Amino acid sequence: QVGLVVIDEIHMLGQDRGPVLEVIVSRMRYISSQTNFNIRIVGLSTALSNAADLADWLGIDGPGLFNFPPKVRPIPLTVHISGYPGKHYCPRMALMNKPCYAAIRTYSASKPVLVFVSSRRQTRLTAIDLVAFCAADGDPHKFVHMSNEELEHSIARVRDENLKHMLNFGIGLHHAGMLSGDRKVVEELFVEQKIQVLVATSTLAWGVNFPAHLVIVKGTEYFDPKTSRYVDMPITDVLQMMGRAGRPQFDTTGTACVLVAEAKKNFYHKFLHSPFPVESSLLDCLHNYINAEIVGGAIKSLQDAIDYLTWTFLFRRLLVNPSYYGLQDTSPEAVNSFLLELMTTVLTDLEEAGCVQLGKEDDPTVAKMEEIEPLTLGYIASYYYLDYTSVAMFQENMHEASELSDILTTLSDATEYDELPVRHNEDKINEKLAEKIRWPVREDYEDPHVKANILFQCHMSRLALPMSDFVTDTRSLLDQAMRILQAMIDISAENGWLKTTLNVMYVTQLIAQGCWENKNPMLLLPKMPEKIVQVCKKRKIGSLFELLSRRRGEIVSLLKECKANARQIESVTDVLSKLPVMEVKYRLPESGKKDAPAACGSYVPIELRLERSKPVRGKVPMHKCGKPKDEGWWIVIGREEDDELVALKRVSCKKQTEVKMDFEAPEQPGCHTHYIYLISDTYRGLDRHRTFDVVVDEVDDPDDEDTAERDLDQREEILNEESK
Question: Is 529 helix (H, G, I), strand (E, B) or coil?
């Protein structure tokens, strides 16, 4: 159904997210060739020196390729590149502040200015020095272009103290660590030209198109936590920042000043004034995409995998720039040998990780490669978009009796958190936070996975974090946590571990609610008074579930007894009106009953009906993790006697939902007690469970049928006594 695909910023192929773009386009072209359905592709990018290779990969012939030099643009752009001495990063950045101010005075005395820096800390330090230079000139408010009343009103809307101070002087700050409300205020003031200068991190260049007459790129290096050193920004990032100067709808000219280390000056002169080549970055993460193609059915053998590679941009550049990819010779034999070795290594790694199966165990290596099948771990990695090493680690680290602390450690060790930054001196902060959390962590405080564990525990303890960077880091952790936990649930369920699966679900609830398992669920309601637990205890209300069954008037009376004010009462009752009381009913339609026992090891169908006391009203009202979400539920069927999970299904329930499942009957004849668990993926205290019996018999043996009947009669007597 796709006829046209427009791809912007296609030169990002060489960056971290480039492989995603490369695989999507390669897959489209491959499918198009198999179905004989042409897809028109329009690619837009900055000037490139190897545009022909890109066009060949996109399937664009000569008449469809347009490659303009960098100087061709709707608005003329003047670029100034200046070099500054200094071996160390911070002193060199400080040295650049005065030239920044001079550039503003020279090229954009009254028009908007964007100053790009490499870190959040540098936004503040740069702004402070700009204010100092304005004050030294005798006009500290020269960048303010609004009345005092407007300025006071804008500052009152801002919560960040540093930003409040800078706005007084007409300078805004912008980075990912700020509150969204603060960023919105700054963006409005800058777009409306009420403040003249905006100091921002480089991410702003990709995210929002703001008008600016002058762009200053203050430094082209950033701190890479993986290597613990300063590295150069990609050329594409620098070009993107420069491109924010002189937008067609706002300006007739534009100016860009690039301030670099003296040693890099000639390099930037060359690449900022001439086209640059773009290379593929698919080679470093080929495993995950090959796994996805195996799961999707596109790759079923080694030859399929090699054929798949020929559709990629990697293959084009491999022949043109072989040394970049580790290929020494471009002869057909050398290329074939390289691809064969590459794909053999990738497939072997996936097999060792448990994601794919290669032929039969007794087949020779080459023969095994001719029959590739995806396994459960491969499906899970592809479905949840996880690294293949993560699912392999989950399979290895989890076991049938994993506790909550074990699960949190396993979650924190996921490959997806490799990129969590541990900045300069943050190891000391991590060590101090580790003293305040509940569960101990490894004493390697520069490890991003240890930091992830600490931040998860701080989130569940609701501890105040020492700086905004940690708040942003926690947010990025939580954004990924839910899909990683979903994968852990699936892997645990696949192994039949009942206790571990339930514990992963409970960890999901704890992270969603930002609490520990010993926290009373009633206290998780927004603005709920602390005294509610004691007051409810006097009224013989022992749980949130029981509180939900009371009338609104009685709940208001309870809150007033706790000295709650009108706002608290309104907040609590509003949330309670949205929380559901769930009921679970079941039926065994075919086998497993006294009059129709199931055969040992056979599959037993079960029909479930979920009934919700109130219809769904909007998103989950008590969510502390990431973006607003819809509520979901897991249905788990298991046997506690042998700690075995026999069935799992994820469902949603708006009012009433009917679910059909089946599970494998025990191998031993008799009457076996099974548990149905209805577990929320968000709420604490609203889970339900109930039991039912499954009669299992070796049907051909009448003695065993009698045994099953006796077991069932005995079980019914026990249940009757318990109910009395």
Answer: coil
Angle between helical axes of 97-107 and 120-136 (0-180°, round to 10): 60
E strand residue ranges, 61-139: 77-84, 113-117
Closest by CA position to 215, among listed 135, 139, 104, 106 = 104
pLDDT in tens, 98-147: 999 999 999 988 899 999 998 888 999 999 999 999 999 888 899 999 99
**Whole-number Å distance between alpha carbons of 370 and 100:** 61
Nearest to 450 by CA among 398, 413, 483: 413
- The residue type of 152 is E
* Cα dihedral: 114, 118, 121, 124 (round 10): -10
| β-bridge mates for residue 660, sequence order | 607
Sole residue written with tokens 């060489």: 14
DSSP string, 375-422: -HHHHHHHHTT--HHHHHHHHHH--TT--HHHHHHHHHT-GGGTT---
Q: Which two tokens stand for residue 399?
A: 């076991």
Q: What CA–CA distance (Å, rounded) separates 72 from 721?
A: 88
Q: What share of the chain is helix, strand, coil (3-state, %, to 5)?
A: 45, 15, 35
Residue 75 sits at φ, ψ, to 5 deg, of: -115, 125
Which residues are bridge partners to 633 per DSSP? 651, 680
pLDDT in tens, 687-701: 999 999 999 987 554
How does residue 702 score in pLDDT terms, banded at 50, 70 and 90?
Answer: very low
Comparing CA positions, the residue from 265, 261, 268 lying closest to residue 88 is 261
Q: What is the mean pLDDT of residues 400-416?
A: 95
C-beta separation of 254 from 245 below 8 A: yes
* Cβ proximity of 400 and 500 under 8 Å: yes
DSSP string, 193-251: TSB-EEEEETHHHHH-----SEEEEE-SEEEETTTTEEEEPPHHHHHHHHTTSS-TTT-
Mean pLDDT of the residues in the chain: 87
Query: What are the Cα distances from residue 224, in Å, to 56, 192, 220, 413?
Result: 34, 35, 13, 20
| pTM, full prediction | 0.84
Contacts of 309 (CB under 8 A, 6+ apart): 315, 339, 342, 343
CA distance 66 to 275: 13
State how far the Cα of 691 lies from the Cα of 680, in Å rounded to an integer. Answer: 18
- Return the axis-axis angle of helices 388-397 and 468-494, rounded to nearest 10°: 70
Q: Which of 194, 227, 225, 198 is nearest to 214 (CA)?
A: 198
- Dihedral sign computed on CA atoms, order 555, 560, 562, 564: positive
Report angle CA 493, 497, 499 to the nearest 5 degrees: 115
